[in-house]
């Protein structure tokens, strides 16, 4: 796993306020704790989390963490195909869905953690 430090992450998200940066870091910790086998990469201006398969650039994508317009977002590349009974995911793209992270407390929400686990298990080649 790539070891990123706070100052590197702050440079990756230059428009983030201190509060947003703290939320980004907390979200990152939650992702790494929930899906410990994932690989973290800086990709497409975001932190990208993938299954440990070197040939899985998109197919092995779990999620991305990014900052956009004052929001901390987790993007699920295969979000349209994940179980989301609470309808937390937003978006209308063919496959990708996003989830705004409203607060650090939300990172312990079982619905969010279930989405991360489902994304880590999802195999687009099996659908």
In words, what does this structure look like?
It is globular and about 40 Å long. It has a single domain, classed as Aspartate Aminotransferase, domain 1, CATH 3.90.1150. The model has no long low-confidence stretch (mean pLDDT 90). It has three helices and five strands, in the order H-H-E-E-E-E-E-H. A five-stranded antiparallel sheet has the order 1-2-3-4-5. It is α+β, with helices and mostly antiparallel strands and 127 residues long. The chain is 28% helix and 22% strand.
From the alpha carbons, calculate the radius of gyration and give it in angstroms: 14 Å
Total number of distinct structural domains: 1
What is the name of the CATH architecture? Answer: Alpha-Beta Complex
The amount of helix comes to 25-40%
Instruction: Calculate the terminal CA-CA distance, rounded to whole Å.
Output: 28 Å
Structural class by helix and strand composition:
alpha+beta
Oligomer: single chain
CATH topology: Aspartate Aminotransferase, domain 1
**Strand coverage percent:** 15-25%
Shape summary: globular
What count of helical segments does DSSP give? 3
Largest sheet: 5 strands, antiparallel
The pLDDT mean sits at 90
- The arrangement of helices and strands along the chain is HHEEEEEH
Largest sheet, order of strands side by side?
A: 1-2-3-4-5
- Class, according to the CATH hierarchy? Alpha Beta
| Number of beta strands | 5
Low-confidence stretches: none
């Amino acid at each position: 796993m790539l070891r990123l430090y706070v100052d590197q992450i702050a440079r990756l998200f230059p428009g983030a306020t201190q509060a947003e940066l703290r939320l980004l870091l907390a979200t990152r910790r939650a992702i790494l704790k929930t899906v410990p086998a994932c690989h973290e990469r800086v990709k497409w201006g975001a932190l990208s989390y993938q299954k440990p398969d070197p040939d899985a650039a998109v197919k092995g994508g779990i999620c991305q963490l990014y900052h956009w317009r004052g929001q901390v977002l987790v993007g699920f590349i295969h979000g349209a195909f994940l179980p989301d009974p609470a309808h937390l995911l937003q978006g209308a793209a063919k496959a990708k869905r996003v989830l705004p992270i409203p607060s650090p407390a939300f990172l312990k929400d079982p619905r969010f953690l279930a989405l991360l686990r489902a994304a880590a298990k999802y195999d687009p080649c099996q659908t």
